[in-house]
Amino acid sequence: MTGQTDARLAELGIDLPEAPMPAANYVPFVRTGNQLYVSGQLPMGAKGPEFIGRLGGGLSIAEGQKAARLCALALIAQAKAAVGDLDSITRVVKLTGFVNSTPDFTDQPKVINGASDLMAEVFQDRGRHARAAVGVAALPFGVAVEVEAVFEVE
């Protein structure tokens, strides 16, 4: 039986990627009580990291938003791997987005909207969340964006 969230993904034409394996000595998620913490996810495509570069240094806000959306897809895939049924997610609590950006770039919130918008599209009211959008000097593999999440689960 397909849950409401899976049906919503299908309605939006979204196929979740496989939940990525950790690249170092950490786990992809930790569940404690009714909280699910998902480790930072990178914009990974079928052939590896995508959207390499810095915002304000060659990458556009639109490209950064696409990178953030890929990160959010990976977050949802990790959440599904953790809980099985996405309908058991009662709330997207918080996203923290890291944007590889030049010192003078100040539109990190616009970039992380790519992840926030996807959470709202998929989870609707349950997808409204608290958030931080932070500019950083570098990210793994030189990617433009990394996003981590906290979910509330049944």
Automatic annotation (TrEMBL):
Segments forming domain Endoribonuclease L-PSP/chorismate mutase-like: 7-140
Cross-referenced SUPFAM superfamilies: YjgF-like (SSF55298)
Pfam families named among the record's database cross-references: YjgF_endoribonc (PF14588)
InterPro entries per the UniProt record, alphabetical: Endoribo_LPSP/chorism_mut-like, RutC-like_sf
Signal sequence residues: none
Gene3D superfamilies, per database record: RutC-like
Domain of life: Bacteria
Record's protein name: Endoribonuclease L-PSP/chorismate mutase-like domain-containing protein
Organism: Rhodobium orientis
Taxonomic lineage of the native organism: Bacteria, Pseudomonadati, Pseudomonadota, Alphaproteobacteria, Hyphomicrobiales
